[in-house]
Every structure is written in C-alpha cells, then in structure tokens.
Amino acid sequence: MGRQPILLWGDPRLVAPNEPVEAFGQELHTLVTEMFETSWAAPGLGLAAPQIGINLRLAVLDLSVGKDPEQRTVLANPEITSQEYRMSMEEGCLSFPGLFTTFERPKSITVRAQDATGKWREIHGQKLLAQALCHEIDHLNGILLIDHIRGLKRKMFVRRVKKLQKAGAWG
Ligand SMILES: [Zn+2]
C-alpha cells in the first residue's frame, strides 16, 4: 500500500503491451488509490499504471494534484473518440523527471473510459485537460514524450537525459 516507485525512461515495462482492465473490485480500488498517492507525491498531474510496472490499461488524472476531489479521474480502458484543432504546449512526464519539451496535441478531445467501478462515461477535455488525457492514453499505448519529438530536438533531449543519468539523477 501507498506510494510506488515511478519507473524512468529506459525501463522496458514502460513500453510493454498493456492488458485491458477486466476486474473492477477491491484490488482495483487499492491500485487506483496507490496511483493517486504516487502521482500527488511526485508531484504530477497524472500517472499511468505501466509507470509503476503494472501493465494494465489504467491511468489516473488529477489536475488539482490532490486539492480538489472532484478532479480525480480514473481512466480504465480509455479511448479517444474525437479530437479537434491543434496546439503546441510544453509537456513533462514523471518518467522523465525534470525534463520538458514542446510539441503539438489536440486542443479539444473526447475520451470514452470506464471508472473504478466499471461504469463507462465520456470525458471532454480542452487545453491542459486535453493534453493530460492524451499523455496518459499515450502511456497505455507505450508512447512516451520522446516519441513525439524528432531530429535535432530529440537529440538534444536525449543528451539532457544522458547528462542526468551520468550525474546519478536518473533513478
Ligand atoms: Zn508520463
């Protein structure tokens, strides 16, 4: 119980296939609680199960970082059903601590997902919420921050990671 260590880029579990969530019982509730606690403690806006080594299509989001219970969102088996417009925003990830990069995401999206009890619902997100939803769903498809950047930008980003690894600041 409680906080779990967050896996960093390079760990194969971050890119392993994720199984659908099928059991919505007490075990899932416990896991979801652990995931919120881990995300808040980091602190982060959300966390995907593979980031703590659990290869399930499950993520949590809380843009208030523990302040507003209304904002706690469980995403089990989420799918993007529509997306509109594009915007460029700075983005970080708990699996790339201290690093940020900028790339385009949809500005407005609709996601269909189950909650911790298995109930399906639609979530509409704009801007930061759209970005956060896309980010967590990417994790469930094994797509990481670094997969969105190319060329020199990517080379520079990898160089920054290597520097942190060398300094012992990476896991
Ligand atoms: Zn992330």
CATH class category label: Alpha Beta
Mean pLDDT: 96
Low-confidence stretches: none
What CATH calls the topology is Peptide Deformylase
Could you give a short account of the major beta sheet? 5 strands, antiparallel
Strand order of the largest sheet: 1-2-3-4-5
CATH superfamily membership:
Peptide deformylase
Q: Please tell me how large the radius of gyration is.
A: 16 Å
- Which small molecules are bound? zinc ion
- In DSSP terms (H or I, runs of 4 or more residues), the helix count works out at 3
What is the subunit organization of this protein? single chain
H and E string: HEEEEEHH
Q: What structural class do the secondary elements suggest? A: alpha+beta
**CATH level-two architecture:** Alpha-Beta Complex
- Give the total of beta strands: 5
Q: Beta-strand level of the residues, as a percent range?
A: 25-35%
Helix content: 25-40%
Broad shape: globular
Q: Number of folding domains?
A: 1
The first-to-last residue Cα distance is 21 Å
